[in-house]
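We include the pair:
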Amino acid sequence: MLLGVIADDFTGASDIANTLAKGISGQGGLTVAQYMGVPGEVAKSSVEAGVISLKSRSVPANEAIAQSLAALAWLRDQGCSQIIFKYCSTFDSTREGNIGPVGEALAEALGVRGVIACPAFPTVGRTVHNGHLFVHDRLLNESGMQNHPLTPMTDPDIRRWLSYQTKNPVGLVAASDVRAGSVAVRAALDAAAGRGEVLVIADAATDEDLITLGAACADVALITGGSGIAIGLPANFIAAGLATGRTVMYQGVNGHEAILAGSCSGATRGQVATHARHFPVLPISIDAVMAGATGSDDLVQFVRDNAGRQPLAYSSSTPEEVQAAQARYGREAVAHKLDSLFAETARLLVDGGVKRLVVAGGETSGAVAQALDLGELQIGPEIDPGVPILLSAKRGISLALKSGNFGRETFFSTALEALKGNVA
């Protein structure tokens, strides 16, 4: 294994696994495997990049650090010379963490400073300018992320936001250095390390910027960022003769299907509305779930009653409705109850013969993936930017785990067709 990734949620892990498997067009990517948590066994010798999916984004910082260091130890035991700490392209974290605490803990364990921190993913509109994060043409705190139920992002200055979370000063590689090329970036990072700056925000507005950052990090031990930061990394290993460049292959899986959506992002709500115009949907009332009036058996029965018709069960309420429910029952209680509902539903569905499963929402996807005991996941073709097909040989199923904000309006139908092997 050449490259190891520690991802703080399950959809983010799939996102960066997809990036590493694709590589740069015409060059191919790495042979990638995604793991649900830290594996208990040695990786297959064919795996060039191992992606460990954690559910550490919203847990207490000390737990996130412990999980991440355990993942680091396993990846280093597999032979990884480079580690990526992957977080969301909207920098999802509270003022207390966990991006900063985990990033610094990994840097300390590896004995490095001047570590890039870049969430940019231009393909889906995430760019960094003068240390400020934009979502398309809006600052982060005006993009809808300020309403996130667990990690509301109220400050677009991610250098400042990260400084709240860290013990050491946070640096910046400005766009002028990035546009000057990889040598200039490397010099800027070395200078930051000399000033004691452990994590360094890097500006990036295009894929070319990200490729430049990747070239500057060809021989570094640690990189942090969104999946975009990995665009140029396979090319480094190919140029060094350590990898040959692979093309993603996928045969498709047939069988019963289901869609579960637990994100309240604007994108997911739009996708639910589009799907509802043509296919059966089941809205899930938070009040009913909290009262015990709606449970996993109800969702399973809905899916069975609508077999073959792309059934979708969702709790994708508006931010205002979610906030009101959190005020009534408590934020953690609502999150735990919904995660448990979707996890148990997914387990019952797969045990009952569902072969194709689409899940929307990072926390929801994490709960589902943990409940299903998927084993090592193979990475298939990309459905939409940041969302690949995932194949679990252990369970004999094919999945798509979608971050809330990702995907076109027709994503749910498109994804189910892609899981059959009909990739657009």
Summary: The mean pLDDT is 95.
